[in-house]
């Protein structure tokens, strides 16, 4: 079945043209899948400026203005627009509110975890300050914020704060209640979370990012919002201000003033070939969406990938690789969210290859039908050195580096002390091998979160 019926010559031109977009937006990540019911794309942000705190507009979920500089990575974005390069925050002064400033209600809620069903109206009646956190369990940007969420839960849950996680899924397996429960338990989250599988609450807040935080005061007004990682001290101060304003006693509870993770200065480059690799998606929803947008380069660097969907295709690795793209070799089937190895092999003949730059590399993988398997991983055609291995890397008796995939989640592959690049290859003899996405970090000292 031809989905787009692309002309090979035109596709080649598109790859050449859109690569210029990577050069111009190398510090940003973006997503290209957008359901019909999602909000319209936001205007492209302007270059980063100094961090500010500004009055919120008169809507419950403001569209982000120009991004502001910060020490953290960009959030995972839901629409095909460049993500803010790290922190965007808005503060609304108490006087002069209108109904437009009220936080929308939890909408089309699914199953609840760690709580009976809650409403923002009910929490308002109880005099609670509420921190609404949009997240999904395979998002590395979300995962990096969780230690701070847990700290705030421990400090302030008995002093008027309710943290409410809204789990809005990115991939199909993240819709499954049992998977979300398992992730909540593995991350050690004790605050309430609700499944937002239909994006009802996401749309009600006009949200666009993972993670995104909205701080709601005791009167139900959104007083502060923050998109992406970072601004942890600032966010905690906003929490404290609203709790004190509501009459809660915080004496003896101190603010965490420790600086958050710092971006490695060596990652500050203008050459796209040496910039931190963008988020890479393997499924055709994201790739076809990027191809149609003409604003974001597709992620798979093979013309034949775009000629069919849900079919196995034999690919040949061209040998020469560019940063920011995936290359295939062997028989692979493209599916909506992911790639699947389409045959059993004996000697790891089929593989996924990429050239990358960063201090950390993570991959979202899953067993296609539930049977565990191993993924052999090489760096520059050699086993990954132990001092560069991520938390999920293992080694066999012959010194080969691999990851054991037994559940659908994000796996930590590389964790490097310094910013550098290389050629990664992932291969498995199993037809269970399903790859969804790669994410990359550029923090000094490697990945701030060393494992789940």
Q: Could you please describe the fold and organization of this structure?
A:
With 452 residues, the protein is α+β, with helices and mostly antiparallel strands. It folds into two domains: 31-245, Glutaredoxin, CATH 3.40.30; 272-441, Sandwich (Jelly Rolls). Helix content is 18%, strand content 26%. The protein has seven helices and 20 strands. Strands 10, 11, 12, 13, 14, 15, 16, 17, 18, 19 and 20 form an eleven-stranded antiparallel beta sheet that branches. Helix 3 (140-156) links the parallel strand 4 and strand 5. The longest helix is centred in the first third of the chain and has 17 residues, at 8-24. It is globular, with a radius of gyration of 22 Å. The chain starts with 7 loop residues before the first helix and ends in an 11-residue tail after the last strand. Mean pLDDT is 85; it is low at 1-5, 17-73 and 79-88.
**Average pLDDT figure:** 85
Helix percent reads: 10-25%
**In angstroms, what is the radius of gyration?**
22 Å
Structural class computed from helices and strand pairing: alpha+beta
How many angstroms does the end-to-end distance come to?
A: 40 Å
Total E-strand runs: 20
Provide the number of structural domains. Answer: 2
CATH architecture of the largest domain: 3-Layer(aba) Sandwich
CATH superfamily of the largest domain: Glutaredoxin
Gross geometry: globular
Poorly predicted runs: 1-5, 17-73, 79-88
CATH third-tier fold name of the largest domain: Glutaredoxin
Order of helices and strands: HEEEHEHEHEHEEEHEHEEEEEEEEEE
| Biggest sheet character | 11 strands, antiparallel
Strand content: 25-35%
> Quick one: CATH class of the largest domain?
Alpha Beta
How many helical elements? 7
């Amino acid at each position: 079945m031809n989905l787009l019926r692309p002309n090979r010559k035109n596709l080649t031109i598109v790859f050449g043209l859109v690569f210029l977009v990577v050069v111009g937006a190398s510090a940003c990540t973006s997503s290209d899948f957008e359901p019909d019911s999602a909000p319209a794309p936001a205007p492209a942000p302007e270059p980063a400026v100094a961090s500010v705190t500004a009055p919120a507009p008169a809507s419950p979920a403001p569209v982000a203005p120009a991004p502001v500089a910060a020490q953290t990575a960009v959030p995972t974005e839901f629409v095909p627009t460049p993500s803010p390069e790290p922190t965007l925050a808005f503060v609304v002064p108490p006087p002069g509110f209108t109904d437009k400033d009220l936080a929308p209600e939890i909408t089309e809620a699914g199953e609840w975890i760690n709580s009976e069903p809650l409403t923002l109206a009910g929490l308002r009646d109880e005099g609670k300050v509420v921190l609404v956190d949009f997240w999904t369990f395979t998002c590395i940007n979300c995962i990096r914020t969780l230690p701070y969420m847990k700290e705030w839960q421990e400090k302030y849950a008995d002093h008027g704060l309710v943290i409410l996680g809204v789990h809005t899924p990115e991939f199909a397996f993240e819709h499954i209640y049992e998977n979300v429960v398992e992730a909540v338990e593995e991350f050690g989250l004790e605050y309430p979370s609700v499944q937002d599988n239909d994006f009802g609450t996401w749309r009600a807040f006009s949200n666009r990012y993972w993670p995104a935080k909205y701080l709601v005061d005791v009167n139900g007004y959104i007083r502060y919002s923050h998109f992406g990682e970072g601004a942890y001290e600032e966010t905690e101060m906003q929490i404290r201000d609203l709790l004190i304003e509501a009459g809660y006693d915080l004496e003896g509870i101190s603010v965490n003033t420790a600086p958050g993770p710092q971006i490695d200065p060596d990652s500050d480059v203008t050459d796209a070939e040496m910039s931190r690799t963008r988020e890479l998606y393997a499924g055709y929803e994201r790739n076809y969406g990027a191809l149609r947008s003409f604003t974001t380069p597709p992620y798979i660097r093979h013309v034949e990938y775009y000629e069919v969907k849900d079919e196995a295709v034999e690919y040949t690795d061209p040998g020469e690789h560019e940063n920011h793209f995936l290359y295939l070799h062997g028989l692979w089937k493209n599916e909506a969210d992911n790639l699947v190895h389409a045959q059993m092999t004996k000697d790891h003949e089929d593989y996924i290859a990429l050239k990358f730059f960063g201090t950390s590399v993570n991959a979202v993988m899953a067993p296609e039908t539930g049977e565990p398997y191993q993924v052999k991983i090489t760096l520059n055609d050699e086993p990954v050195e132990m001092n560069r291995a991520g938390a999920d890397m293992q080694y066999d008796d012959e010194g080969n580096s691999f990851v054991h995939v037994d559940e659908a989640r994000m796996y930590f592959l590389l964790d490097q002390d310094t910013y550098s690049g290389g050629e990664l290859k992932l291969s498995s003899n199993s037809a269970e091998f399903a790859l969804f996405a790669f994410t990359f970090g550029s923090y000094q000292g490697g990945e701030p979160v060393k494992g789940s």
